[in-house]
Amino acid sequence: MPGVSARHLSHEERRQLAVNLTRVVTLYRSILDAYIIEFFTDNLWGTLPSSWQEALDGLNPPQLATLLLGMPREGEVARYRSVWPLTLLALKSTAYALAFTRTPGFQTPSEFLENPSQSSRLTAPFRKHVRPKKQHEIRRLGEGHLSRFMSLGLGLTVKSIEGDQRLVERAQRLDQELLQTLEKEEKRNPKVVHTGPRHPPHHVVRWVDPTALCEELLLPLETSPQSGARLLLTGLHACGDLSVALLRHFSCCPEVVALASVGCCYMKLSDPGGYPLSQWVAGLPGCELPYRLREGACHALEEYAERLQKAGPSLRTHCYRAALETVIRCAQPELRRPGVQGIPRVHELKIEEYVQRGLQRVGLDPHLPLNVAVLRAHQAQENRVVAFFSLALLLAPLVETLILLDRLLYLQEQGFHAELLPIFSPELSPRNLVLVATKGPLGEAFSLLETEDS
After folding, report:
1. HSE toward the beta carbon, residue 215, CA cutoff 13 A
2. Taking burial as the number of CB atoms within 10 A of a residue's CB, which of 31, 308, 312, 327 is the most buried?
3. pTM higher than 0.85, yes or no?
4. 353 phi, psi to nearest 5 deg
5. Torsion angle of the four alpha carbons 12, 13, 17, 18, in this order, in degrees rounded to the nearest 10
């Protein structure tokens, strides 16, 4: 998907981009703020302009991927069956023009050309227990896997902070397992040269408090930081407020001279406190991003476009869940949008079977009388449900862009150099934009992230 590069924008252009984003988000807030499970209960299709309905109605999933999301198959040419309204075309063009580009400086990661499950850029010991997605991420950026690679693979002194004691204990077991594996390899291959003893990451069980800066971050350490220590603060998919805490620690702690952060789980940001951070964005009308908008910004656009191109039966899940919502509200009107645990093999179920299982999952009588004809009429609108959801996904990158742009502007307001760059393949890792900042010129260090083989 095309987009704008943050690196090519001046400070004033970044501020103007924030103005434009807030205007567009405000204009299309009704789409972004909608819950797809309320498609039938809230008549979401009827909220769209009639000209949009006419253009989108009847489009199959592959056509939606190509024409609306702008993600055709390789070699495919987009062919419109009718003239789309200018307002819909303008929405599509605006979504492309204002969102930060998620396309890295490489096509397919060369590390997976020989084997899609094993990165050629990591040796076998560092691939163990690591899915291909994470293999790609830790090699490009350098969670427990990242700190293990940085310490035992790159020989850096690493402190890893985690709030869950169980995860820390598991990470320590994996550290020891990797150390034993590396020691065995050294014995088998004594010609391998190492610069010194290997030290695993120093794991700390602690919740990072954005208001208790520096001491909470840097201590406890096995040894106190040496005078003049220069620290890099990094977070690979730092969830919710953790990304914000990293920014504030970077701003306030003199020992931290560089930051590399990939955020995620924007819906978990504190409100207020987690967004907006910059004075500029906070002063813009319409800058507010409620929970639903931030949640939508975490969806995997490329992955959904691929699902649309394949047109598999799993696409009907949203339609089935929206139909279930109508039955739930008829049975118990005060019960709105209850969480429904995953129902396996949805695509193999008749819609009435899905509804019965769903009723049971939310504590209602699964044997309630159902109007099967109405349910089947809902099922017949499956492509409309998919089209509305695709519209929301088209707009979602604008919300992510605004959140990340706010962080860029916040750092610049503090007087720091900050940039944003896509470094992961978005098909493998949807949250692929890394925020890099230093307390001096970025220089060539940041440019090393731009090429896949760096």
Report:
1. 2
2. 308
3. no
4. -70, -40
5. -20
